[in-house]
Design a protein that fits this description.
Oligomer: homodimer
Distance between the termini of chain A: 39 Å
CATH superfamily of the largest domain in chain A: NAD(P)-binding Rossmann-like Domain
Helix content of chain A: 25-40%
Strand content of chain A: 15-25%
Radius of gyration of chain A: 23 Å
Largest interface: A-B, 72 and 72 residues
Number of helices of chain A: 11
CATH architecture of the largest domain in chain A: 3-Layer(aba) Sandwich
Number of strands of chain A: 14
Largest sheet of chain A: 7 strands, parallel
Chain lengths: 345, 345
């Protein structure tokens, strides 16, 4: 650990268990570890951080105007997530504080998670896993290839062909998938789904040039024309509750929602109602509005797959995000362009 | 339902619940429904099936020499599965009975299932789903992004970087995937995994021409050079227990096995030991040696995903296999080449 006084000073705050960046940071900078102080954070910052120009915020500590007011010299805020909805970007802009995020470090992981959730919902993988673990598959008298629920035959052949019966375990091939947010994550999801025979379209702020997928300028039409909606855009004032009751009604009773963005992109209360009422057909959710609180109504549903905000939780991704954070700090201290700046509106 | 005496006669046997082909069959043929008789099958066949030339076996009824001896005029056996390990193919060859299977009808479904299981094991999707449903994620005092097991941090960030600690939740990108059996299913799995950044190689009876993937003539070397083994070959005398203890030791402690072929491809007893002992890292299994019996040791493992032989259980696939079966029967009765003949060795 070199902590020479020549190294620039960097303020760090992290949850106790997120130690993955400690080595990287201490090798390159002098650190002011706010999370190690017993003092309340505002007090600690007022006392020790007046001259701090760079702040690495590991995790999801809310960065609002009040907290920023204790950092009068701050010029750079390094975030370790892709989304920066926990940061008051308007205040950062007003103050001239640059903000960086995880850039592409997580993109492959999040795309893998989204496709994994999509397959898990359509093919009922966790429901089938529960069924086998329950021991019911091998019980005498049960049809060996069937699980039935109220509305679906979850795994196994249909016992009777009732055309009005709704079911979802189905070919992934041919599914129309509408992606909301075709950035670095969304485009990786599209690329992965193409060889499954999925038909991709998307919504984003502006139409992308030289992208072969059909563009929808509004989410309602996107939902109407697709079987699956995948949410992987930023959470902003414009995208909060972008999936509301009307969009879910438009998606329809066999429609599936996959959310690897932020919980606030969906009106969660309405989504629970839509799932209970069969307005939509299923959901695969890595994020929730009040996580780690998850609506308990979802716990009994076989057409829903729940994931504890784990899309980025791979060792490879943590290594990558540490590299991106260090690269941003080094660029900042040597007056080079930042590696992954966040647009401040 | 036209059952004119002009229509050819077809013998049918199916489990009670697999009615999906009834309409297709009765529209085209006169049917001798063996499964509707209260008589034991051999007795029924001896009494009524002496002149039968075509037999549709829906499901997995064992077709051995003894059963075939009651069908002296049989020329065509139509199976509705891809694998025909339940049929004595040597006896069919000796008797000059042609055998057909499901052809490509299930290939997309099985490939989707294989990739779904692979993502589910590597990204611990069912384990994460169990964790959220248990309510533990939101319990105060628990780290909100972590689930720890004995050997793995299943979902969430690693608490400490212990290089000797074994873990599997990881990037799918860059994983080396060895496919055993690069037929219509295996090649679809390869195609799907390419955009995830997986590196594909394969083993099959003979090297395929104009295939870019590296070929291994033996499974032991394939296992040694790969992170994941995917089994999607036929079960034959040559492939029974193709994955034995030696192969699993070669695959190694972070290695994962995905099986969408037949349970008998793996020495299941040894596989359970290898999972218990940490010789391999995980498994995603749609098939089992004595299904629906599944070794109970697997029920408590978070690095294992269990599926009740559901790879083909989609309505789309059932429609497709009915079409293939009918097409084979029509071809047979009009002396045209069969659509999906099985090679009889």
């Amino acid at each position: 650990m070199e902590e020479s006084s020549e190294s620039p000073l960097v303020l760090v705050h992290r949850p106790p268990t997120l130690a993955y960046m400690d080595d990287h940071l201490s090798r390159n900078f002098r650190l002011l570890n706010a999370h190690l102080s017993p003092d309340p954070l505002p007090l600690f910052l007022s006392r020790h951080a007046a001259s701090v120009t760079a702040f690495v915020n590991i995790g999801r500590l809310k960065i609002d105007a009040e907290l920023l007011s204790h950092l009068p010299s701050l010029q750079l805020l390094v975030c370790t997530s892709v989304g920066t909805d926990h940061v008051d970007l308007a205040e950062c802009k007003r103050r001239g504080i640059a903000v960086t995020n995880a850039g592409d470090a997580f993109s492959d992981d999040v795309a893998d998670c989204a496709v994994g959730l999509l397959l898990s919902v359509l093919r009922r993988i966790p429901a089938g896993d529960r069924y086998v673990r329950s021991g019911n598959w091998s019980k005498p008298g049960q049809f060996q290839l069937g699980i039935k629920t109220k509305r679906y035959i979850v795994v196994g052949y249909r016992e009777s062909v009732d055309k009005d019966e709704n079911y979802l375990m189905n070919l992934v091939s041919g599914k129309r998938v509408g992606i909301i947010g075709l950035g670095s994550i969304g485009s990786r999801i599209a690329k992965r789904l193409e060889p499954f025979g999925c038909i991709i379209s998307y919504n984003s702020r502006t139409q992308k040039q030289s992208i072969p997928y059909r563009y929808y300028s509004d989410v309602l039409s996107l939902a109407a024309d697709n079987d699956v909606l995948v949410l992987c855009c930023s959470l902003t004032d414009q995208t909060r509750h972008v999936v509301n009751r009307e969009v879910m009604e438009s998606l329809g009773k066999e429609g599936v929602i996959i959310n690897v963005g932020r919980g606030g992109l969906i009106d969660e209360e309405e989504m629970v109602k839509c799932l209970v009422e069969g307005v939509i057909g299923g959901a695969g959710l890595d994020v929730f509005e009040k996580e780690p609180q998850v609506p308990e109504e979802l716990f009994g549903m076989d057409n829903v797959v729940l994931s504890p905000h784990a899309a980025v939780a791979t060792p490879g991704a943590l290594e990558s995000v540490a590299e991106v954070a260090i690269a941003n700090l080094k660029a900042f201290f040597s007056n080079q362009p930042l590696v992954s700046p966040v647009r401040l509106g």
